[in-house]
Amino acid sequence: MAFLEVDNMSLEFGGVKACQNVTLKLEPGILYGLIGPNGAGKSTIFNVLTGIYPPTRGDVKLGGESLVGKKPFEIAQKGIGRTFQNIRLFKELTVLENVMSAFYSSSHSSMLDMVFETGKFHTEEADVRAKSMELLKVMGIEDLAEVPAGGLPYGKQRKLEIARALGLNPKLLLLDEPAAGLNPTETRELTDLIRKIQKDRNITVLLIEHDMGLVMKICEKIYVLVQGQLVCEGTADVVQNDKRVIEAYLGVDE
Amino acid sequence: MKNINKTFLIIAMFFGLAILLNFVMGGFSFDVASLFYAKPTRWQGLISPYYYAVLVILCVNVVLSVSLALLNGFTGLFTMGHAGFMAIGAYTSASIVTFMLPTAPFFIQMIVGSLCAGTIAALIGFLIGVSSLRLNGDYLGMVTLGFSEIIRIMLLNIDAVGGARGMTDIPQYSNLGSVLLLAVIVILVIKRIRDGRLGRAMLAIKENEMAANMMGINPLAIKVKAFVISSFIAGVAGSFFAHSEGYLSTQTFTFVKSFEVIAMNVIGGLGSLSGAILGAGILTVLPEALRKVQDITGIDLRMIIYALTMILIMILRPQGLMGNREWKWLSSK
Hints:
CATH topology of the largest domain in chain A: Rossmann fold
Mean pLDDT of chain A: 91
Mean pLDDT of chain B: 88
Number of helices of chain A: 10
Low-confidence stretches of chain A: none
Order of helices and strands of chain A: EEEHEEHEHHHHEHEHEEHH
Strand content of chain A: 15-25%
Low-confidence stretches of chain B: none
Strand order of the largest sheet of chain A: 6-7-8-3-9-10
Helix content of chain B: over 70%
Number of domains of chain A: 2
Largest sheet of chain B: none
Number of strands of chain B: 0
Distance between the termini of chain A: 43 Å
CATH superfamily of the largest domain in chain A: P-loop containing nucleotide triphosphate hydrolases
CATH class of the largest domain in chain A: Alpha Beta
Number of helices of chain B: 13
Distance between the termini of chain B: 18 Å
Radius of gyration of chain A: 19 Å
Structural class of chain B: mainly alpha
Order of helices and strands of chain B: HHHHHHHHHHHHH
Radius of gyration of chain B: 20 Å
Shape of chain A: globular
Number of strands of chain A: 10
Strand content of chain B: under 5%
Oligomer: heterodimer
């Protein structure tokens, strides 16, 4: 059985059919791509997976358990981490604090521990700090730990968002256009980084991206979404040669 | 374990200072306790009753301002009902001590009174929080303003607490020593909450609620927590205020008081703990200090200068005097 199942899911806003009968089956430890023209409903699928929109019909299951009706933070605690297309960092917090905030639900010191700064508080705080620093090192931004996140250059903000999502220790990582706005060098660097993280941590990654070079290079399986409907799924080769995909991107040959 | 010692060290230092002060003030009296609870006669040996009164109000205002900073500055909840929670605390404590513990020792009165005040205020804060925290921004402000006025009007119509005449003959056990101690404790508590995981979650929610949600943080739960903690502290502040004044009137707790506390936060710098303290200091001391100006000029320029100062601060430093910086002893590093 698949690890994340989106079963015949439809989402409608009044008459607008944002997603129609979308079925995804994600296996653990594989890097998936989700592509499609603008407005195809890719980010909407992310929003359904993370509980922001409840699906109109159909079901979303993580490890056999339905996520429909769960609150976004509950779904996050179950191990779905995500980044945003338009970066949403905690700008006034430092880079390190941004990552540390992701450890909220997995740490346990109580109010009294904080107020009296007990041993438990200090051990846990040091632990969270060390783990966060490690994530920053993975992303190569550890030297910026004490800088306010809002002051980072754009590319580093993208990296920080991924580091923060990893702080949740997710089983499934949703990346919404991680390479948007990056220059070719940065994109190449990020591509390798995503690949490395996915292999090292053995997590499932679902990635939305318009940079086809990136997608074709690292995604093991690609879903193509057009106007809210899945039109094709398969490896890079399959997708590149699919008639409907070519039509969607380039138009019909008349 | 190293830092438990730090907590003890701060408290020990405070009491050490108190003992020192005790000798300076009272000429080798061993009655240290009277510095913290009892009629203010011992303090008034050192400073005039006028300065004494200003300092007491200053400490109460610092406590209020800092507790509002937790809501307004750290969690990003704009509330306009702080005076209401203070009123609940003040009247709860005054009633319990006057009607149920009139003959108990000061020490017992203080502990029971302030804890009950805090608890009842926190309870009502919880109810108001749960029912109104689904609202955002200005709407939350309006609702909390409404609630605080409801509380005030209710108190105004309870005859047992004096109604419109106000409540008199409240045991005056708290004095400058105890409000000062309260202010120090509250500042430390709020600082530590801010620096812990709860504080980070609060700041995260203020910065970006959606992203906080995606990090597994339950925004509503954190907001309710912030609300409860803040109203607890406001209630305790009300209790100490009641027992240092000895007289309560609902006129003290109008929305003007709530706005004053918000102004302290804004002038000091929203999101800065140091700013909340500084703001409380300025807004309490400035109107009093300007009385001196009146003595010199002969005409009452007090309100004009006060208003001009406010306007100048808003124009020249819209982010508040501290911005979001902190004094060194309050910074998180």
